[in-house]
Design brief:
about 450 residues, Growth Hormone, Chain: A, 3 domains, 18 helices, transmembrane helix, membrane
Length: about 450
């Protein structure tokens, strides 16, 4: 939980300090890269860390991730220009790519199936708390201390997390002497990186039909095709192609992709709607979308009772149906709606997420042996990162189609623009129901989990 709090806080804490940072360092036009480069570096490294963890064990990969994240935080705190700050954020992202999936993989190793739902709820609670505390802490540090402490505060937290894992997590992982698939890792990084970069920056830094956008999409697809050909012949592939042939893994990854996209859409545009259309303060707008992250851990903490009795597929179907209900409630929101209406819709979506996100991930983990679990978990996490990038592209395009490239859109423009986001969320929620229905039945998903040597 301490390790997870590092990357959870850094995904939100910088949001309220952007103007303070750019006032001192300049480069206001470059500030979106502070978010994009972090997400990009994190996303493309996740699958690689998953395979390395299955080869060398979870502990060394987790320790490496914490160390790199701490180094990136130090470099961010010492940055003297926007360019160096962006590069330091990339270093942070490389470390975060290890910490996130390793936390969940370690939980899958040391806890039994009934215990895992409660543990996943604890980890979800970290993200929920960070989504509320992050912007608040960012504002406090930037206004009363220094924006540099937004990053430097990570150093004692990283030291504490590293010490606790080093001291209390005993792992006797079976060392496997395999040749590392460097070519596959390189192709995956380049291909996935090009596609995610195209999704993140398309329509913002360059037009969708510009040569750079077309080049990134085409180059990314061709590189991933080459990656697939290499992996078919690799003795120890960095991302085995069997993850695309197992029904439970494909279904859970599709659910995770949709979770990432829906979460991005609501957390990005609900505060915009609350401020720009309903006229609330920034703090009130943040608390409104915080209802989503309040409902998530509440239902996630109870999901174990559901999937142990009903199975993973039924639990995921119930959760995705609740997401549809919450999305339907948001479809009824307009310029005359009460703020409570928006918060209730977000809360219901969060309740559904807690019943679909954790059970589908745990189902995927339960279908794999120890030597596969790192790849399985990282694939799921990679799908969520890809979903976030896809959400940036889809929802950004929908909003921009109505605000006519205005830097300061008025409420009359924002209301129909954000309504399109709610429509997109509803469509994705319906697709999530179909993805949950594609999960195998209970007997086909849950396999006996052997007693772990890493307890």
């Amino acid at each position: 939980m301490v390790a997870t709090s590092l990357i959870a806080l850094d995904s939100t804490i910088i949001a309220t300090a952007v103007l303070t940072i750019t006032d001192q360092l300049g480069g206001f036009s470059q500030f979106p890269w502070l978010f994009s480069i972090y997400l990009l570096a994190q996303a493309v490294t996740v699958p690689i860390y998953g395979k390395l963890a299955d080869t060398f064990g979870r502990k060394p990969i987790m320790m490496f991730g914490i160390a790199v994240f701490a180094l990136g935080s130090l470099l961010c705190g010492l940055a003297g220009s926007m360019v160096t700050l962006i590069l330091a954020r990339a270093v942070q992202g490389i470390g975060a790519g290890a910490v996130g999936p390793m936390s969940i993989t370690i939980a899958g190793d040391i806890y039994t199936l009934p215990e895992r739902a409660k543990v996943q709820a604890y980890l979800a609670a970290v993200w929920a708390s960070s989504s509320v505390l992050g912007p608040l802490l960012g504002g406090v540090f930037s206004e009363y201390v220094s924006w540099r402490w937004i990053f430097l505060i990570n150093l004692p937290l990283a030291a504490l997390a590293a010490w606790m894992i080093l001291r209390y997590f005993t792992e006797s992982a079976p060392r496997q002497h395999h040749r590392i698939d460097y070519l596959g890792a390189g192709l995956l990084t380049l291909g996935a990186g090009a596609l995610i970069l195209a999704l993140l920056e398309g329509g913002h830094s360059w037009a969708w039909n510009s040569p750079i956008s077309i080049g990134l999409f085409a180059g990314g697809v061709l590189t991933l095709v080459a990656f697939a050909l290499v992996e078919r012949r690799a003795a120890n592939p960095i991302l085995p192609l069997w993850v695309l042939t197992r029904r439970v893994l494909v279904a859970s990854s599709l659910v995770s992709l949709l979770v990432g996209a829906i979460l991005l859409g609501l957390t990005s545009y609900v505060p915009t709607f609350a401020q720009g259309v309903l006229g609330t303060s920034a703090l009130t707008a943040g608390l409104t979308v915080g209802a989503l992250t309040l409902g998530w851990p509440l239902s996630a903490s109870q999901s174990g009772k559901f999937y142990l009795r009903l199975g993973f597929r039924i639990t995921a179907l119930v959760g995705s149906a609740i997401v549809v209900l919450g999305a339907a409630a948001l479809l009824l929101v307009d310029a005359d709606s009460a703020l409570l209406h928006v918060a209730i819709g977000c809360f219901v979506v969060g309740m559904g997420m807690g019943l679909v996100a954790s059970p589908t991930l745990i189902a995927a983990q339960a279908s794999a042996e120890w030597e596969e679990r790192g790849v399985v978990t990282s694939t799921n996490m990679f799908a969520r990162s890809l979903g976030s990038a896809l959400g940036v592209a889809v929802f950004g395009a929908l909003v921009n189609s109505r605000v006519e490239a205005s830097d300061h859109p008025v409420a009359a423009q924002l209301a129909p623009a954000v309504h399109l986001v709610f429509v997109g969320v509803a469509v994705m929620a319906v697709v999530m129901v179909a993805a949950s229905a594609a999960m195998p039945a209970r007997d086909g998903t849950v396999v006996p989990v052997p007693e772990s040597p890493h307890r």
